[in-house]
Each structure stands twice: as C-alpha cells, then as structure tokens.
Amino acid sequence: MKNDIVIKNARIHNLKNVDVSIPKHKLTVITGVSGSGKSSLAFDTLYEEGKRRYLMFSGTQFMIDNIPTFDSINGLSPTVAVEQRIIRQSNPRSTVGTKIKISAMLSALYANFGERSLEYDNGVPLDIAMFQRNSPRGMCVKCLGKGVAKCLDEDALFADTTQHICDIACELGRRGQTRNMLEELCRNHNMNMWEDRLCDLSDEQIDFLKYGDNGISRFDGFIPWIYMIINGGLGSSGRLAHLLTNADMLQQKVCPKCGGTGLGEQATHTTFGGKTITELEHMYIHDLLAFFEKRSDDKNPLLKEIITKLSCMVDVGLYHLALSRPVPTLSGGEIQRLFLASYIIAEMDSIIFVFDEPTIGLHEVEKENLIKIVHKLVDSGNTVIAVEHDENFMRHADYIIDMGPEAGVRGGVKIYEGGYDEFLKCQTSKTSPYLSNEIGFKIKSDYRPINKDKMLVLSNANIHNLKNVTVHIPLGVMVGVAGVSGSGKSSLISDTLVPKLKELLRTKCVSDDEISETVDACLTGIENMKRCYIIDQRPIGRSRTSCPATYTGIFDRVRTLFAATEQAKECGYTAGLFSVNSEGGCRKCKGDGVVHYHVGFGNFIDVDCEDCGGSGYIPEAMEITLDGKNIREILEMSVDEAKDFFTEKDKVITNILNILKRVGMGYIKLGQATPTISGGESQRIKLAKELSKGKNAKGALYILDEPTTGLSFYDSEKLLDLLNELVEYGNSIIITEHDPYVLSNCDYIIEMGEGGGSDGGEVISHGNPMELKNNPKSIIGRYLK
To answer: CATH number of the domain that 487 lies in?
Structure first.
C-alpha cells in the first residue's frame, strides 16, 4: 500500500464511489468508453487534489471550502497534468520555441555571438530584447510582431462606381456608429450618403470618403476606419472581416515591412553561422539540431544546452516541427510531447504525471518511440498515469484501470484494475473484447469503386515541405490521408486544399476561418461537388459561458420553451431571462457561476459564486421550471439524458441530440463550458451541427481532421457507421488519420512521406487499403488491418 496511490469513494461528476489503487513508479493506463469517467478520475479527482495540497502548502488555499468529492487519497506526491482542454487555451503568440524556452536561448546566443551587418550597426550594443517579438524593442512596428497583416484592397472597395455611398464596404455605412459619423462627413462636403453614387462625386470627395478630412468630421475615412474595426479597435470584428473577405476586399498577407519575420531591423540584419534568427526558427528541428551540432563548442554552454533540448524533442517525435510553429496550431498529442520533453530535460523525479491521450497524432512507427520515452520517465522514479485508448500503448502499460460500463449516468464504475493480460479476459468491459479480438473492430472487405471522371485534382502544391505535389482525390468515397508526423498531411489538406476550396467555392464552403491566405496551387474538379464543410478541431465558442447547447442552437429553443410556460407568462418573463449573457445572468459572477481568484505564482482558482450558488443565474430565472426542471438542471443534463427529456417536447432539439449521440457525444453535458472541451470533441459537435441542418442530401464534401480522436473502439465504430452513411447518401469524405483501424475502413488512402519535415512532402503510395498492404513503399500498409 505504501507504493500505491489509494483513492476511496471518488464521486465527482458521474463517478459512483470509486475505490482504486494506482501503483507508484509505474505506467498506468485509464481506459473505457468515451464519457465513462476516465478524466473525472485522473484529472478532476487525482490531479485536482494534488494541486489543492500544493496550494495549501504554499498558504494560498485559505478561501476554498468546496464539497468533498472523495473520502480519502493516500500516497499522493506532487502532481503535474497536461490535458487537451487546458492546452487549447494557449496564447496565440506562444510558439514551440517560447514554450520550451529555446527561443530565449537563441535570443541570448544572437545578442552575445551574433554578427551584425555594418550598414545597421548604430553603435548600440545588441541585447536579448532586440530578438524577441513580444518585446517593444524587438517587434516590427507595423505588424507588432505577428508577421502578417490584414490588407484591404482599396481599389476593390471603390471599384463599383454605381454603388451609393451608404453601400461602400458591404453596407458598412448603414450600421450603428459608422452611419452617424458618415452622415456628418457627407453633410460637411455636400454629399448625400443615401442618394449619391460614387460616379456622381468629385475626386476630392472620393478622397474624403477614403481617408477622411483631417479631423473636420469625426469620420476618419473608410480605409482607416475599416482597419481599426478589423484589428479589434471596436471589440468584435468577425462579421465585417467575413463580409469583406467574401467580397475579395480583404486578405491576410505577409507584413510588407518585416517580410513576415515579426522582428525589427536589428534582428533581421544580424546572423549566426550565416543564418538570421528567423531562418533558424523556421528550420525543422532535426535540421536545426544538425546545424548546431556542426558548430558545437565545449566552451559555449549555451550551445550545449540548446543541443540537449533539441535532441530531446527529436526523441519524443517532434523533429518535424519548427520553433516558429504557433502552439495553438499543434495537436493535443504534440503539445503533450512538448511538455514531456521539458520534463525529461528538467530531470524531475518522484512526480505523478497525468497525460491525456499522449499518442494522439502519432503514426504507429512513432508510438514505439513515445512509449520508450514514457518508460524512461518512469525509470527516473516518476509515476505516469495516462488516459488512453491506443492498443499499443495499453499493451506496454504496467497497470490497467477500465471505467464503464457505458457513458454519462450509465458509467462512472470501475470495471477492472490489474495487469494487461488479465484485462483481456474481462467479460464486463466494452474495451477488452476489441483487444482480445473476441469482437474485433469491423473492417470492410469491399471498397467503393473509384470514378476517374469525378475527382479533385490538386497540382503544384508546394507550401511548407510539399515538393510540387500533384494528387488525385476521388469523390463519392471515403478518402484517408496518412503519413508520419510532419510528412505533409496537414500541408496538403489544411494548408493547400482547404484554402483553394474556400477561394473557389466562396459561400458554399463552410468553415470557422474568416480569412485564408492565398496559395500557389491549382485545383480542378469542383464542378463535381455542391458544398464543402471544413470540420476541424478548433474550439467551439470563444467565451466561458458558451457551451454545446449554445453552439448547436439548442439553447435558443430551450429558452423559448421556458418562456412559454404558464409560470413565466404570469410573471411577464421573456426568453432573455434564461440566458446568463442577458437579463438572467448573475450580476456578481457575470453568468460564470464561479469567481476567479489569483493565488500567486501565476495560479488561479475558481470558487462557486456565493450570490447564485454556482448556477450563473439570478433567483427569478431559477424559479421557473419545465416539467420540474429549472434552466440550470437542463444544462447539467448529458445529451443522452436530454434526448429522453425533450423527445415529446421539441422535434428540432431531439433531432440535434440524436445526431450528437451518433457522433459519440452522448455523454457530454449541454452546458459544459467550451474551454473544457477537447479538440476531438469540438470537431464532432461541429459535425453534428452541420448534419442537423439537413443539407447533406447529396454532393457535399466533408473534410475532417482525425475525427476519432478521444473515442474508444466502441464509439469509433459508431462514428464510422455515420460517416459511411454520409457517403452512401452521395457525399464525399476526406479524413486525415493515423488510426490503422479507421484507415482500413477507407475506400482510398493517400500516404505522404516517407519521413517528416525535409524528408517528407511527397506522395509515397495511394490506393485502397489492400493495395497499400501489398505496396512495399507504404509505411502505414504494414499496420493496416
């Protein structure tokens, strides 16, 4: 027992008084169907208690008095967790280099050993701040360190000379504050914004509309005013940016001043080994390691430290990344391996590490290396606990805990704990039968025929590491795109195909992005499709109060049902009372349900709001009930529970809930805050939202990025059944995938490789799964089922 972490009666969320013993200094995997309670046990119980004890030790736990969610936890040592839902809240300026502290080292290297161009040597000594984009001394003054700028096509804005003044910039002049100021400018210069057309105006009047009149009027002119709006000067800028982009008036381009580096003149004209700091940051990590190893100097400890960190990143499978890669663009698996590298470099011991599916985004070949690294962490005296579904990772675990039997209220029970071999014999688990091949994952044996007359042909793709790739993508089937990390999958699909589809299909292409960079590639065959849905893993919603119910549109109908009750009518309440963002929100916590406190050392804690008791609502809203349930109780329901509750009340709500269940989201709560939702969950919610609109009859293309991320074998099968139904209806699907079970169920596979970074960027094999299994050039072929 002394070598175990012993948890007694864990009961948070759906956990049903779970008792479990986790061996220390071992690798333990917690598995089970999606929503069975894995994260509740690993993160919300074990990790949260470890964090609470640290805060108590540091003297900052004085204000917390929450309801206990377990009886006892013994054997707990310092705990570190890396979970996908926290990862996704990263600073957009954070990069791989800044996260692992190599960027700061490079800045110091250039400040001390850089060679500055004589033309830019102003006599001021180089310092570290000059090589940092987040520093006022180092950032480009035009793009403020971003490297890109939103560029307005001024000629296109005024190209239609038949338009009225009020219709310039997608009718911007008709709205709100702009309307009032534009009317004033027009009065001051003998113009009528409602009746005058651009062709009726003098050149001077056109200039006033473009650039203002030097302060005579409050309106600064359309061009400065639009730039202020799209750069966030008035808060929300999304709608205008979306309209202008669709009208070909707005594009995101490389900053003309710094050339995309984000740095000032001193940094861009200082070199080390003949390379600027930006050139090094854009190199793939394995190439960068080779660059520094050639210049290794025992007398330079800075170089030695940089080489050590880069070597570790290669070991954990991040060789294909560049230091300049923004952290928010990384997958959950990549960011966890980034943290893993930093822990190994720090040579920590006696720590409990809790990981959330660390194999996400890894090719089967790369998983072997990750498993070795994790065991290295264990051998150093640490305990590793991983929430995981991967068969190979589970096989190498020292201990297995299986949660179930199902999701949500039907889960929360410990089904099994013990060794892997005995787990295979567990009769009550929904996971073990897949591992023991007692059930086996359904693998298709016949593939849909390829129609060579209905194909998307993408040619001359050369972004990132792509080497002028030309690829034929068949329509009317399910296409998988495979390859090791950094082989060019995302570059081909997300960074080339998707921008071209947006450019050519315009409003018929549905995605979260408002602005896409133009790409130098050619795409033909779009006449064979009617619409396109880009369904990625970016977060849904951007506020703490957004949730699956608000994103899918369910909540509007729920609020209407509450407002239609006799109780609400008698009190004169409207649907607005049942929104925390409107009149029904608690005044103290602004609808969050919690109050946020800073407790030092950059740590924050959330404490239930005393005024609303954690509901986020004012008392009046909580008094109204719908069949005995108040608004907060509705939001606390899982999709499965809500489906039963609304079956006879609203057909639209029931339809959306049914589709959410089919994409494997039956366990998620309607009111779960979107910042706590993983990338895989976000993608499946987006898919459900689009499918619920009923536009999927025929001819649509769906592009998905690892759609089974976070799903068990059981739930993955259900999602694949739904995707196959879409194809049978006459639609097309492209999925970027690593999972050999999913790829084996595709009709056609395009494999990129053969390595990552500069060793990838080419199509190494293509065809149906059986053809790849028989192709000696294919790497994924040997893992297909």
So the answer is: 3.40.50.300
